[in-house]
Specification:
Order of helices and strands: HHEEEEEHEEEHHE
Shape: globular
Number of helices: 5
Distance between the termini: 9 Å
Number of strands: 9
Oligomer: single chain
Largest sheet: 9 strands, mixed
Number of domains: 1
Length: about 220
């Protein structure tokens, strides 16, 4: 895999370079840790450079969301990107340490599709197609993340796990899937910018502890 782009060192550094920044959030139950939908361009002709750039942008929701958070929150948040807990099978997409707590965020992209919860409320329905693995993976990721936080320097810190949909048509009302909130980036950023009890020192302590114990991809 190509190296993730390097951000300003005060914010995010490519996880494969050993850097990290995290942000904390408040405890909420939102679980989605599954594979992210990838945008595939199908055409009889070679796409133009502009089309290819747009496709690449849509296909990288983690990069796009990281950019948006960094620009909106600045030094108030610390980010860890695609880090794997010890003994866990898959990386956690995005961990954010903010003044109000620690957040585990799963960025999703469903361009042009209607995104809802299915009638049971336990799975995503995207244009009436069920996506079972998203919540299943999120539950597994959430359990592993919660265990990592609870054995860290601030075990009582609020933990929030949620899905953030960058592209897709969400209903006007708030909703969750299997107990995990589903939000757009603006709402996520509002959560991250809330005032909390974690000062600079506490945020850095939690962030560095998680960075040591969550393994970056090779």
């Amino acid at each position: 895999m190509a190296l993730r782009k390097k951000y300003d060192e005060n914010h995010v550094i490519d996880s494969r370079e050993g850097g990290f920044k995290g942000m904390k959030g408040h405890r909420h139950v939102e679980y989605q840790g599954q594979s992210r939908p990838a945008l595939r361009v199908v055409s009889a002709e070679h796409p133009s450079s502009d089309d290819a750039a747009r496709a690449e942008e849509v296909s990288n929701p983690i990069d796009r969301l990281t950019d948006a958070i960094t620009q909106a929150c600045g030094d108030e948040v610390l980010l860890l990107i695609e880090r794997t807990p010890w003994g866990h099978a898959r990386p956690l997409p995005l961990v954010v340490t903010a003044p109000s707590g620690v957040f585990l965020v799963e960025p999703l992209s469903f361009p042009g599709a209607q995104v809802r919860a299915d009638p049971t409320g336990a799975n995503f329905s995207v244009d009436s197609v069920l996506h079972y693995r998203l919540t299943r993976t999120m539950n597994e990721n959430s359990d592993a993340f919660q265990a990592a936080v609870e054995t860290g320097p601030c075990p009582e810190v609020p933990v929030t796990t949620l899905f953030c949909v960058l592209d897709g048509k969400l209903p006007y009302f708030s909703f969750d899937v299997d107990g995990f909130d589903v939000v757009k980036p603006k709402r996520l950023i509002r959560k991250l910018k809330r005032k909390g009890l974690l000062g600079d020192r506490e945020r850095e302590s939690i962030h560095l502890d998680l960075a040591r114990r969550l393994v970056r991809e090779c």
